[in-house]
Specification:
alpha+beta; 191 residues
Length: 191
């Protein structure tokens, strides 16, 4: 999974046009990645309309690589409505997380998603979350910031962002913006 995640980072870098002196910029940030693998079990539910397997959120991580069984239940918020992601036996689902939103200077957006449950059968999924090392400074490549004319997010470490999502604010569609505001406020206080 690590190799696939690094290959995806290479493709994202190419798509952003970051190929000058910063070639392999993202790959280098994740050479010593400390990623997470999780197996999720969502039991069948007698009243699926009253609960979610997981409520709406954006992953704070960089990339999420998901394998889901054929039961289904993953939904993404697109065009102001929830849409099911049809599972395929030999397919993976790739989500951009909040960390890559910052690393792309806002060019890529994290994906708001949720998981529903059903009354017929349990659901299983296997998830790989690409995370940088906790003390790694994260920032968009200077080449990208110069091209955009503005730096959208302050520099931060994965440890700071993870701590924020664990202690201050659950991961949802506003997490990155709230973290940015919190980080700027706390750094100004310490300056």
């Amino acid at each position: 999974m690590n190799k696939l995640a690094h290959d995806l980072l290479d493709l994202l870098e190419i798509s952003l046009g970051v190929d000058g002196h910063n070639h392999n910029y993202y790959r280098k940030l994740y050479d010593d990645a400390v990623s997470i693998v999780r197996c999720n079990h969502y039991p069948q539910c007698d009243k699926p309309d009253l609960t979610f397997g997981v409520g709406p959120h954006c992953d704070p991580t960089t990339l999420t690589i998901l394998y889901q069984d054929l039961v289904g239940g993953l939904e993404v918020f697109v065009d102001n409505k929830w849409k099911s992601v049809q599972p395929y036996r030999e397919a993976l689902v790739i989500n951009i997380g909040d960390t890559f939103t910052a690393l792309s200077n806002g060019k890529y957006k994290s994906c708001l998603h949720r998981v529903s449950v059903n009354s017929l059968s349990p659901r299983l999924s296997l998830v790989f979350f690409l995370c940088p090392k906790g003390d790694r400074e994260l920032k968009a490549p200077q080449e990208l910031v110069e091209k955009d004319g503005k730096k959208e997010y302050p520099d931060f470490t994965w440890g700071e962002f993870l701590q924020f999502t664990q202690k201050n604010h659950r991961a949802d569609e506003n997490t990155l913006q709230l973290f940015t505001k919190w980080l700027r406020t706390s750094k100004n206080r310490n300056a």
